[in-house]
Amino acid sequence: MSGLRILVPVKRVIDYAVKPRVNKAQTAVETQGVKHSMNPFDELSIEEAVRLRERKHPVEDILAFSAGPAKSQDILRTAMAMGADRALHVVEEKTDLEPLGVAKLLKQVVEQEKRNLVILGKQSIDDDAAQTGQMLAGLLGWSQATQASKVELEGEMVTVTKEVDGGVETVRAKLPMVITTDLRLNEPRYASLPNIMKAKKKPLEKKTLADYGGELGKRLKTLKVMEPPARQGGGKVEDVDGLIGKLKELGAL
Amino acid sequence: MAPPLRHGLLRHATTCLRQSHPISAPKLSRHAAIQRLLSTLAVLEQRDGQLNMSSLASISAAQKLGGSIHGFVAGASIKQVAEQAAKVEGLEKVIYVDNAAYDKGLPENYAQLLVENIKKGGYTHVLAGHSAFGKNLMPRAAALMDVSQISDITGIESEDTFVRPIYAGNAILTVQSEDSPKMITVRGTAFAAGAAEGGSAGVEEGVDPKAECSTEWVSENLAKSDRPDLATAEKVVSGGRGLKSKEEFDRLIPPLADALGAAIGASRAAVDSGFADNSLQVGQTGKNVAPQLYLCAGISGAIQHLAGMKDSKVIAAINKDADAPIFQVADVGLVGDLFEKVPEMTEKVKGA
């Protein structure tokens, strides 16, 4: 059997701990001067890819990919510090690509780089779309396993336990395959300083959208971005009787 | 300065009126014309020959759009599910495909099945619930149709404009789509499911492309419970890290939930620590709930958790940390030790 040639797409997003603010013009969320980091689900993808190699599966190489502004380089370096072998960066400053556009881009990367396993996060925590992996699998005609909490490999057969409503479901498919990660899949490692230094020497290839030709433009138009209606805390009560009384008053009991 | 300005405003207002009057009539009929052309396919879920009632939210959402609505079901011995669906109010027709190959809803062949039936019906909109099934299936089908998908909508402004939360619910996006059909997943708690009785839709067999499925379904392990379903429950009692152990979670939370007739939820911290099953997680990466009452104990209120519950009608919190962020959103807060307060509450609710 030939080895695993893994593609791990990663996205640079506003750090999960930051409370996003809508800009004054109500056109987008303010990103200037806000801490960014790797989408948490993508850290799980890298970690899983690296663990496959550590579990002695024949991994040929792990390619980290990102499409986005120049600063996305930082998270590609992080991915390499965590164990990815090399990185590919499609530099695009202006357009926020939609999942369909990213999926089309990834399809080309998969074909050019002869990948046989793609591991993505189940969703990015900024647009919360949860689409890219499924779209990619559809475009490639590959098997898909979403919201994976366990991935087992035996030869070319992949068995994935998935988080579904009310419990878990297990599916099995032959490579090539697209897997999206759920939080329960693993505990991503911290990149150690020596590994961060080593990652600086790993190859990072830069391309542009033009290199991929094709129509990756936007289909959806943002009309407005607003703050959600603020919820006012209703104050505190002294004891359990007060709590029950207030709940009755509010018609909740 | 004031009088001319007022005049100006008045003149402006009258011109507006004069202009808008003749336009308003054709505008209305144009709207009606659009509504007549709309046709929605609502993808319904089934399990073991039972229609999944929470998937009916896609029908409620479709009713907000206007136009005709067809339901879609597929699986083994599906006819009875189709007939059950035909009674749901609002449906004109139920399309069914009877084939055991679709029973588990695997997207590798189900997406192709859906695409063929969308093409045949010429639908302008395709809606499914933003459930594990809908999330798995719809983007794949959207890609096959070469359209962008709009996920987890909470509002419909017009036939091409939709509202959805982004950034864990910290911003609300209004988005317009020119794609056709519009592939959409619907947040169940934002569109109350309509009546499951009273409809009389026709039942019709759909097309079956019999696409191969490259994935094999192996097994499932679902948490069995007599309690109301978390996603649709009227009341939810949720526990967090503050419960300290699975034993304490099981000792304190279920009795209070039972006393209230509530479903049980949990924070990510509680799930990660093994206090509660994954399927009970409420939040950005778990379930979204919007019950009448969300009562939580030992949950601090991280933004990822708030994302999943802040649309609840009434939020009540018990926490010993008076500065916990949960108190900023709670309608009623009780600062105290949950190990005392929760059992006391259980007893008092039971006694009431």
Structural features, described:
The complex is a heterodimer of chains A (253) and B (352). Chain A has 253 residues and is α/β, with parallel strands linked by helices. In chain A, 26% of the residues lie in helices and 32% in strands. In chain A, helix 2 (72-82) packs across helix 5 (193-199) and helix 3 packs across helix 4. In chain A, 49% of the residues are buried. The mean pLDDT of chain A is 95. Helix content of chain B is 36%, strand content 26%. A seven-stranded parallel β-sheet of chain B has the order 7-11-6-1-4-5-12, sandwiched between helices. A five-stranded parallel β-sheet of chain B has the order 15-14-16-17-18. In chain B, helix 4 crosses helix 5 (132-144) and helix 6 runs parallel beside helix 10. The longest helix of chain B is centred in the N-terminal third of the chain and has 36 residues, at 2-37. Chain B is globular and about 60 Å long. Residues 1-26 of chain B have low confidence and may be disordered. The interface between A and B is large, with 80 and 90 residues.
